[in-house]
Design brief:
mainly alpha; 74% helix
């Protein structure tokens, strides 16, 4: 029965309204469970450096997803589709955090150990990607230029209005701009379609360019409100990690998938 429900509502291409609602609820539950039963109980300080430590794992999730179900199809099945791949990455991330915490007491910092321990699976994914090759290698240039231009446009706000856009929030927002840029490039120049319900609706009304101002208009206030309203530093920085994942991982996935032409 559960398998039939999964195949009917969750295994198909694109994201239906049912999928969107269910995944949103699962995200809320996962955010709470990880915060309450893991992050509050470990010795590692969940500060802004923790976000830096998580970056290679976020990139790993994006690249691995581009190799999974509905994309390159190198890996198939539940564990390489949403939400299975998030569980898979979390299952690797937890021991990496604990091991990095332990090793950092002896030599090197927690952040460095996180990057070192994230490197092997990330390198393996890059090796597999290189074996597939890039049908559209120019995607990387287009996405980089678009992201850089949009990020440069809001850079003065970080410099002159740091109260409203901190340095950390600027880089998290840039991760989302990468996501918006990858969608804009893939849809506009390479014939891809938006799979998510709301963005797809807005793009049908306006065009794929809307993803860039939309990302800034939504994510910037969200980050500001997290800083302004969440007093618990652990929860505040954990929520920022979640926001980073929702932008950077998708941007990496979209970019690699479009570059591979899958």
């Amino acid at each position: 029965m559960l398998e039939n429900i999964y195949l009917t509502y969750f295994a198909g291409p694109g994201y239906t309204t049912v999928q969107t609602v269910v995944y949103a609820l699962l995200l809320v539950v996962a955010v709470y469970v990880i915060y309450e039963f893991f992050l509050k109980r470990i010795d590692t300080e969940i500060d802004e450096s923790f976000l830096v430590a998580m970056v290679p794992l976020v990139v790993l999730g994006g690249v691995l997803r581009s190799l999974g179900h509905g994309d390159a199809e190198i890996f198939t099945g539940f564990w390489f589709n949403t939400p299975g791949i998030h569980i898979l990455i979390a299952a690797y991330t937890v021991p990496v955090i604990l091991l990095s915490q332990y090793l950092s007491r002896r030599k090197l910092s927690f952040v460095k150990w996180m990057w070192i321990l994230s490197a092997p699976p990330l390198a393996a994914c890059f090796f597999i990607v290189s074996g597939i090759g890039f049908l559209n290698p120019e995607v990387f240039l287009y996405v980089f230029v678009t992201t850089a231009a949009a990020a440069a446009a809001i850079y003065p706000a970080m410099v002159y209005l740091p109260k409203y856009l901190t340095g950390t929030n600027y880089w998290i927002l840039t991760g989302h701009i990468l996501d918006g840029s990858s969608t804009f490039v893939a849809v506009t120049f390479f014939g891809y379609m938006e799979k998510h319900v709301l963005p797809g609706f807005l793009m049908d009304l306006t065009g794929a360019w809307i993803m860039l101002p939309l990302k800034v208009a939504v994510i910037w206030p969200v980050l500001y409100l997290i800083d302004d309203m969440v007093e618990d530093a652990v929860l505040r920085n954990w929520l920022k990690v979640v926001v980073l994942v929702l932008g950077l991982a998708l941007g990496v996935r979209n970019t690699f998938s479009a570059a591979m032409g899958v």
